[in-house]
Amino acid sequence: MPEFGDMDGATLLRLLQRVRGHTGIHMVEAKKTMLQARLRPRMRHLGIDSYAGYVEHLDRNEDERQPFVDAVTTHQTSFFRTPKVWQYFRDVFLPGWAREERERPLRVWSAAASTGEEACTIAICCEEVRRQQPGFSYEILGTDISTDVLAHARAGRYSGSSVAAFRAGHPEIFERYDAARRPGQFMLEDAVRRCIAFEPHNLMEPVPWQDRFDVVFLRNVLIYFTADDIRRVVHHLAPSLRRQGKLVIGESESLTSLNVPFQFVQPQIYERAAA
Fold this sequence. Notes:
Structural class: alpha/beta
GO molecular function: protein-glutamate O-methyltransferase activity
Domain CheR-type methyltransferase: 14-275
Keywords: Methyltransferase, S-adenosyl-L-methionine, Transferase
Protein name: protein-glutamate O-methyltransferase
């Protein structure tokens, strides 16, 4: 079993550069302890006993990039996280959109989907509308840079504190949509799960979709980027939204003064500006 020494300053800077280059995340030197802890399991798996040795391995092996990304990215999420966002989406946006009696499905993108709880929450809100208006339909795309969390999202089986909080906060909805029927677990019923697809995507790269989505959820990820990278990410995803499409960001995030093609609607909610 490898015994890991401390990470020297030069190696730390090299690793922080790789984090930024491969993910866009601006990780600071104060995160050294966290970075070491996240890399150790991978280093043990590879039999590498020094952080400098791991950097060399990463640079020499293209196949190591994805395991590195999986190790260093953060995947904290939960069902119905930040209730006021869901109140807007469920009680304001969805009824207004559905009243238009559109002939196409509502399309929503969860752009930092992690293990899928946000995409499931979007689907549940949409399904509540569909139950009242059978002609309403929807499609949800969840993307993430980490293939590990996407595998979890596709499996769709949840447990732990996130499920406990979901059941305690929304007991009727939990019972209505849970297919697991096991204590401490939740699995979205098949008919609703079929409306969700999960794919890999790096937010630092241009999107392959044009004028496709009515809403994009991009929550709690911009806080890890510099102002320049936030502009880059937002400019990349803007063309994927339809005219007057909504962008939902995190509670501690803002697009103010960033010169991006979005107009403020209310805290956390922006609308794609007219061209």
